[in-house]
Each structure stands twice: as C-alpha cells, then as structure tokens.
Design brief:
The structure holds two protein chains of two kinds. By secondary structure, chain A is α/β, with parallel strands linked by helices. Chain A has 13 helices and twelve strands. By secondary structure, chain B is α/β, with parallel strands linked by helices. In chain B, 46% of the residues lie in helices and 13% in strands. Chain B is built from eleven helices and nine strands. Classes of the chains: A alpha/beta, B alpha/beta.
Chain lengths: 317, 281
C-alpha cells in the first residue's frame, strides 16, 4: 500500500474512468472481455465497444443471461467485465451471482453503477440500497466501494488480477479527488484518510468525502475526527477497524445503503468482540425505498449529508 | 456409428444409474433415464474428450443444464474412466464428490456446475461464445429439460445463442413431457418446441430420444450448419428404458420402497444379465 492524498482537484466522471481503464486492460491483457446489458451508452463503454468490437459483447436487456454467460466465458479463461445499474447487477441476478458465479468459482468482474441516491431521476425502481447486504453474504466474493476516481481505477485493475467474482459499486458521476493518482491500495486494507482522536468515522464510497466535511466542520468546535476509508467492504479490514475504535468517544459508520447488513453492521460485527468501546452511530438509509429526485435532494431525504451527520453526532456527544 | 456398441453403452449407463439410486434409496430417476441414450451417443461417439485429462484444452464441453439428472452423467463419466466406478456408490453420501447436482469443483469430468435451473444453458452459451471469439474448434453440448424451459433465463440464453449464431453449441431439449408436479402440458404448456426454437432462429430437429441411431443422425445432419444456433428436441419418456418407471406417474424423484424398490431391483438384474450376455458375444 502506498497512499498519497490529492493536492489538487481534477475530478473525472467515474464512467469515463471505467471506459479509459477498460481500454487499458483490453490492450494489456488478451483475456479481458467487456459486456453490457444495453447500457453501454450509459456506462460510457460505447467507445470501448467501437474500438474493440471483438472484445465487447452487448448482451441486450437480459441480465440473468449476461451474468451466467460471462461466468461460462470465464470457465474457459476469459476475464469478463460486466456492467449494469447496481440493482440489476445484484438483486435481479442474485441466484446467478451465486450458482454461475461464486459457487463454481467463476472469474467475473461486475460494476454495479449508481447505487443508493445516485439513481436520482430513475427513482425507486432503479435504486439499490441492498446490494451490499446481499453480496456480503456470498462466500468467494470481493466487494469494493471506491471513494474516488483513483481508487475506482485501482479497484478495476485489482479486480482483473483477482481470480474470482468481484463486485464494484460506484456512481457513474463525478466524485471529488481524495487520492493522488500514484496511490496504490490493497485488498482488505482500510485507509486512515485523516487522523483524529475523539471520533472515528468509517465510511465507504461517496460518504468518505462527506465524512471529511464533517471532520472539517467539527474541528471548529474543537472535536477531533478520524476518517477511515473502508473501500474494501469484503474482505473488510477488521484489524484496523478494531484498533482505530479504541479510545474514541464515538464510533460512526457512513454508507449510501440500507442500514441493514451494510457497512454499519459489518463494523459492529468486527467490534462486537472487543468490549469497552464507545457507542456506534450508523449513518445509513433507514430501511426505506428510493424515489425520484436530484442527488442533493435524495442525500438530504436519506439523511446522508455532512450537515445531518454532524447534527446526529452532536446530539449524541 | 457402431449402433450395438452405443446401445450397450446406454444399457450400462442406465444400469449404473439404477445401481447408484438403489444404493442411496432415493433420487432423480425419471429425468436421468430419459437422457441416457443421448449421453451414450455424445460420450460414446460424438464428443472429443480425454477421460485421463478432463481439463484437456482441446476437448468438447458438456453442460447438463437440467442438473438433477446428475446420476446419469456420473454413471457416464465413471464408465468412460474419468472416475472409478466405485465412486458411484458415494452419490449424495456425506462428504461425497458426487452431489445430486453436478459440481465442476468436485467431480472430474464435470465441465460446468449446474442445478439451479435455467443457468446451465446460459453458462453453455458463454463457453461456446468464448470458443467462437478465439476461433477454436471446441464444441459445446448442452441438455435442457422441458420443465426447465419454464425458466425465463432459458429463453434469454436461446435468443443470445441464436443472435450470436453459436453453431459450435448444440442444444438438446429433453422433452420427456413431465416435470416434478405433473405433465408439462398441464403445468406450463410448452406447445411445439421445434416451432418455438425455429422462431427463435435455431435450426431444429425432433427425434425419438430413445433411438441412438436417430440421435446420431440428427447430430450429423446439423453438423454442416455453421452460421446458425442448433437444437435437437428429444422426444423421450420420463423414466425411459423400464416399463414400470415409464408408467409410474410420479417418477421425478423417487424414494424406493415396495413396488418401486422391487422394480428397480428387477431392472438392475435384467440389465446386468443383458450387458453380461452382450459382453460375452
């Protein structure tokens, strides 16, 4: 692991990074294939399809077949990257992820885009608040929830190198830069993004940036907040989670996902055997469905903004 | 094709399947028996395989999408020498390498794990697509159940195979006319499967699924097609090859007792004597 933090902001759309990284992977590894379920235009891979027609397959609007067929391809040595929106990459195809995927140790890479509030104007039908809850319960799976473009790119390259099913959940849109592009991460290792002594916030994805905003704001009140990026949701860095919780006055988790069986539960489980720890505050979606709206509106509705997180922390402290 | 040799191979597959089920006392007899002749033709005559090297990169692949017919596949694999015949005695025993449904990580010779219905045929299309992309000559053979074709995913896989013109994939639909709860026409009418497959873009033939010559001839007939997905609808009888089990209505999964136990015992005796006398000829 070699982490450097971003000193300037040059954020890119994640879908642009997806496209750019697939081009690199295709050119460096003859086993890489790209598949989409009639969302190539939405995921940004339409250009990859154009540049590498012999390595890309549009599977049409048939996600179940896409997952199983991609798994079949992997049994012959291919490394397929498949994409669709997070709900259709997980809850629509859960049994396919299970039997065609992890159960027979297929080598499948899945980008589930626009989880949680990122579904925006696609609304409740297209909102996934349960993708981590489901996928975490699968043996033989690696789950990444990257927090910026640099980490997303690293996760894709790491996914290509891992022999097994990898699920990457991330927006297609822009995330603020947290890491310098030279950063190297490690599967199963969380990152202390910013140190602090009073509170620790374990966060994933877009919520890492919200946690950093909370940290800046609470500093003005003399409260010191540590922020930990738990991008490797499975395997989770339970050792670091345990060590950073010791001595804190409050433990917080933050995720753009249902409070049931997401990061909050994973952290609570990791800490359950430690004892003598502070209370845990779970910042997550309160077991409800999504709806249409702008991402700002939905973040507020789901009580995931840094202002709302700060208020909840101050109420407890 | 040496018809007598393949017929004898089919008898042996049915015999070993019956012995496995008899040993365990229960199992999926109906759907195992209905594919015996097809397995005999594929593994005895058609497929390019090396039982001593199950992972041989140049081999043809077999996908039992209707995974519950696993016992018939295990019998076939053991008779071909992938595993010792004695392993058949372990079907569904605690810790076995031969579970109800085929598991590629457990049984040598099983190319693809199946059992959750509808997925095997999609997996098979993926394997075939991969060989097509690499311009490799490997072929893929898959057996789908007519009951299994209730699953929507089967039809997703069929439209993908047809769209991609996967002529290196040969799909068999085992039309044994029954599923667990009864007749397919009463539960989810398949109507005319040949017409459906043709409408999906397949070249499709229907043959008697207990006739090894007819099965082989159909495979040969489709061999020359290289720009279209291909299907053979096997007109079979669930429990095929034994009068008692063919006429037993609930023959999907049987717990052998009383008449069914006696019938299985006499089938094993009859087939044992038959293959023994054929062996002496």
């Amino acid at each position: 692991m070699n982490i450097r933090f971003a000193t300037v902001q040059t954020p890119k759309e994640i879908r642009a990074v997806y496209q750019e990284t697939l081009n690199e992977l295709i050119e460096s590894n003859s086993s890489i294939l790209v598949m989409d379920a009639d969302l190539a235009g939405a995921s940004g891979v339409a250009k990859v399809f154009k540049n590498h027609p012999d390595r890309c397959i549009n599977m049409g609007i048939s996600e179940a077949n896409m997952v199983s067929a991609a798994a079949g391809m992997s049994l012959t040595g291919k490394i397929p990257f498949i994409h669709t929106f997070a709900p259709f990459a997980t809850r629509r195809v859960f049994d396919q992820l299970y039997m065609s995927g992890v159960y027979q140790r297929a080598n499948l890479k899945i980008y589930g885009s626009d989880p949680g509030f990122w579904a925006a104007h696609n609304g409740g039908t297209h909102t996934s608040m349960e993708d981590l809850a489901m996928t975490r319960a699968l043996p033989n799976i690696t789950i990444f929830a990257p927090s910026d473009a640099t980490q997303f790119k690293w996760c894709m390259k790491e996914a290509a190198a891992i022999d097994g099913v990898v699920y990457i959940r991330a927006t297609r849109k822009v995330l603020p830069d947290i890491y310098d592009p030279s950063s190297e991460f490690e599967t199963g290792k969380a990152i202390v993004v910013a140190p602090g002594s009073d509170i620790v916030i374990y966060a994933i994805g877009e919520m890492v940036n919200e946690a950093l905003n909370v940290r800046t704001s609470l500093a003005t009140r003399g409260i010191s907040v540590e922020v930990v990026d738990c991008f490797s949701v499975k395997p989770l860095d339970e050792a670091l989670i345990r060590s950073e919780a010791v001595g804190k006055k409050l433990i917080v988790t933050a995720e753009n996902h249902n409070k049931i069986n997401g990061l909050g539960c994973a952290v609570a489980h990791a800490l359950s055997e430690v004892g003598n720890l502070a209370k845990q505050l779970t910042i997550a979606v309160d077991d409800r469905f999504g709806e249409v709206g702008t991402t700002d509106y939905l973040m507020d509705k789901f009580e995931l903004t840094s202002r709302q997180i700060e208020e909840k922390i101050l109420r407890i402290m | 094709m040496e018809t007598e040799k393949i017929k004898r191979f089919a008898d042996l597959i049915r015999l070993e399947t019956a012995k496995m089920l008899s040993k365990r006392g229960f199992g999926h007899l109906g759907g195992s028996f209905s594919i015996v002749e097809t397995l005999a033709v594929l593994y005895g005559q058609v497929m390019k395989i090396d039982p001593k090297n199950p992972a041989w990169p140049d081999r043809d692949w077999f996908v039992l999408s209707k995974g519950h017919a696993g016992p018939a596949l295990y019998a076939t694999l053991a008779l071909k020498g992938y595993v010792p015949l004695s392993m058949l005695d372990t079907l569904n025993e605690n810790g076995t390498l031969m579970p109800s449904h085929p598991d590629r990580l457990k049984t040598p010779g099983v190319d693809v794990t199946t059992g959750s219905l509808g997925q095997g045929i999609s997996l098979a299309t993926g394997v075939a697509m991969s060989f097509k992309l690499d311009k490799k000559p490997n072929r893929v053979f898959a057996i789908v159940g007519d009951g299994e074709a209730n699953e929507g995913q089967v039809w997703e896989a069929f439209q993908f195979a047809a769209h991609q013109k996967l002529s290196n994939l040969l799909v068999f639909i085992d039309e044994n006319h029954k599923q667990l709860d009864g007749l397919t026409k009463d539960i989810m009418n398949p109507f005319d499967l040949v017409m459906k497959m043709e409408a999906f873009g397949f070249a499709c033939l229907r043959v008697k699924g207990n006739d090894v010559d007819a099965i082989y001839e159909a495979i040969r007939q489709l061999d020359s097609i290289d720009d279209q997905a291909k299907c053979i609808v096997l007109d079979t009888v669930k429990g095929q090859g034994d009068e008692y089990f063919e006429n037993l209505f609930d023959n999907h999964h049987i717990r052998f007792s009383g008449d069914s136990k006696d019938a299985l015992t006499s089938l094993i005796q009859r087939l044992s004597e038959k293959v023994e006398s054929e062996g002496r000829q």
